[in-house]
Write a structure and sequence with these properties.
Elements lengths: L3 H6 L4 H5 L3 E6 L2 E5 L7 H12 L4 E7 L4 E6 L1 H6 L1 H21 L1
Antiparallel strand pairs: 1-2, 2-4, 3-4
């Protein structure tokens, strides 16, 4: 079982989390990730839900356990003030830009 969010707050980096998800969609204020473990692991879904519920920058989220995705709508200004969320989103944006540049 992955306890990624707990580990992230215990010192694991945004890179650790991003290595385990695929970014399906990303624009400022909205991100959708595919996290395959969410399909089989109810405790991981609950952990993700609990962490997202506690994050002030998040306006809305939806976990889709059928396809293993998480859609997050967030306040860009509040996210910038949260060091972990800010780092995670910055690295996600960089990775998405690299993926888009490879497509041509």
């Amino acid at each position: 079982m992955f306890n990624l969010l707990r580990k992230a707050t215990a010192g694991f980096s945004a890179d650790y989390i991003l290595a385990r998800v695929k970014i399906a969609h990303f624009i400022p204020g909205r991100i959708r990730v595919i996290w395959p473990e969410l399909k089989q692991d109810p405790s991981l879904r609950q952990e993700v839900k609990a962490r997202l519920d506690k994050t002030a920058a998040i306006n809305f989220y939806r976990i889709n356990e059928i396809i293993g995705s998480v859609l997050i709508e967030y306040d860009v200004h509040k996210a910038a003030k949260d060091p972990f969320i800010s780092s995670l989103l910055s690295k996600a944006a960089q990775r998405r830009a690299r993926e888009n540049s490879r497509r041509g």
